[in-house]
Prior knowledge:
Blueprint: E1 7-10, E2 14-16, E3 22-24, E4 28-30, E5 35-39, E6 42-43, E7 48-50, E8 64-68, E9 71-72, E10 77-78, E11 82-85, E12 88-91, E13 94-96, E14 101-102, E15 107-108, E16 112-113, E17 118-119, E18 124-125, E19 130-131, E20 136-137, E21 142-143, E22 148-149, E23 153-156, E24 161-165, H1 170-184, E25 185-189, E26 194-195
Parallel strand pairs: 1-25, 3-6, 4-7, 5-8, 6-9, 7-10, 8-13, 9-14, 10-15, 13-16, 14-17, 15-18, 16-19, 17-20, 18-21, 19-22, 20-23
Antiparallel strand pairs: 2-3, 11-12, 23-24, 25-26
Amino acid sequence: MSLEPPIYYSKSEFIETDTGNKVSRRATIAGPQNIILGGKTIISSSAIIRGDLRRSGPGHAVVISLGRYCLVGEGCVMRPPYKTYRGAFNYYPMKVGDHVHIGKDSVVEAATIGNHVEIGKGCVIGKFVIIKDCAKIADNTVVPANTVVPALALFAGSPAQFVEDLPESTQELVESHTKQYYMRFQPLDPARGRQT
């Protein structure tokens, strides 16, 4: 049981899906047919997820996939990485694992983010960055394009640099934190001014 207080939100501001995802009506979800949310993921207000930026061609393509118990903080921008290859401009998919928290006002253009990853507030994650499992990116860090952040590593600075190895317990700590955050995220009944 969490000792931290609940985080109340207005029930009318969030849409809750069958799989427990909670998406703010104030978030911008472009190309939702190209976005996969794994379940129990929270998309905060003012977040922008660009599922409309996809490879040209017919049909649907998964542009951004997020795992379970993820948090996209307020004002975050998630957009798929892109490059010109052999004269052709293309977007490439972004895959985000389970138990990933992305802090407020961060911009993410990574190729892959593993499981149990914490990205701080105000970060810039460059194009085609790969962040391995249980890594942590400190607040206000700029991770240059094509960087590979190893598992269980703390990166900080601008440009991002290795700071220290994280303990083996990081996976359990992050998983516990993300699950507790989801459980604490409770609807507020505006008529009564209390939890429903």
